[in-house]
Amino acid sequence: MSRSSRISRRAILRGAGAAMALPWLEAMAPRTVLGSPAAAAADGPRRMAFFYVPNGVHMPAWRPKEEGSSFELPWTLEPLNPLKDELLVLTGLAQRNGMALGDGPGDHARALGSFLTGAHPYKTDGANIKVGVSVDQVAALEIGDKTRLPSLELGIERGAQSGNCDSGYSCAYSSNISWRSETMPMAKEINPRFVFDRLFGAGATGSADEKQKRSLYERSILDFVLEDAQNLRNRIGMNDRRKMDEYLTSVRDIEKRIARADEAEEMAEAAGAQRPEGVPKDYAEHIRLMFDLIALAFQTDTTRVCTFMFANEGSGRAYPFIGIPEGHHDLSHHGNDPAKHEKLKKINRFHIEEFARLLEKLRSIREGERTLLDNSMLVYGSGLSDGNRHNHDDLPILLAGKGGGAIQTGRHVVYDDLPLNNLFLSMLDIMDVPCENIGDSTGRLKGLDG
Fold this sequence. Notes:
The protein is of the alpha/beta class. It is built from 12 helices and 17 strands. The chain folds into 2 domains: 12-42 and 206-277, no CATH class; 47-190 and 279-430, Alkaline Phosphatase, subunit A (3-Layer(aba) Sandwich).
């Protein structure tokens, strides 16, 4: 069945206080250019996201030996082998403002505080925190009006916003990667249910009676937009119907997984345990839920800017589910102990395995002649290299996605101690966001386009 009318990219499904944005559909493209080279240029907007791991990584198992396109991924990065052609491994980038610069200890706080801001955090554990505007918020302030949510800040650990968390540095530096201004961090959301509600308007729109009715019956959001969805199906072609079915199935799957987390919470409370509402006890499932929500946020163009923290900087989280009962932070102070090296490698690889799942998800979502991954730029890394040395140079940095065709992936690119902020300037250019400098940037990062 052919399309009977063109659909707006901003179209949404509505019903009983719910609002669901739509994924990219062929019916949203101008009819005159569908299937032509011009259609590829309009296949979807560009997105950017930043994923942070604390405590550095075990670099010998991270850094490829070969440069260019003929390189092999080392043990830690092996889970990315099926996606090797979709990413860049970037070696030799530094964040100098994470160094002490006369301020003494506190490398963990500075590592995170400087990672996206390129600025040196002011050393205080009081209210007078100060660092810089992070690259994600530079983008959000410029293009945030094009989407319902200017940006999305997510994580796994809540973290404090005040107090002393690292040698005289405020906990705000160790807990926040995103900064809207020099003095205003963007607190991350760790509850998948709250993220879901933000994305789909559950409990955020409609009358008080409608919200109460939905809460009482605890029905799926799909039940409330079913009529609107069926009306849309009658107006779109077969390919778009298939895409809609996949999208709605994905939304329902996330709802069910969040509901299971809620049920586990109720059981924990009955046993006398307390934990935050809607937060899965299983760390891997928590990450996967958040990653699926990021995919939906990008797929529906609800936002084009996102940050995610696997844990707060300096996190002592243990990983017993992969055979590591010790805390991550203590292990990162390995003192060249081979046994600790092996455990760090396993933690690093676990994080990469989850990141690979997200990339596979984004690659599976078509946007015309491209994929959602093609239209995205995802930076993965840490503000520390070796957690034992606390060094802020030669950082572990990955860049996945082609940025809408602006980036030539499938390479290991080696730089000679250049600012990480140069990469961020180049990404902002690709996002059509004007910016002259970030932190100690010296220009755009060359070599991203081949």
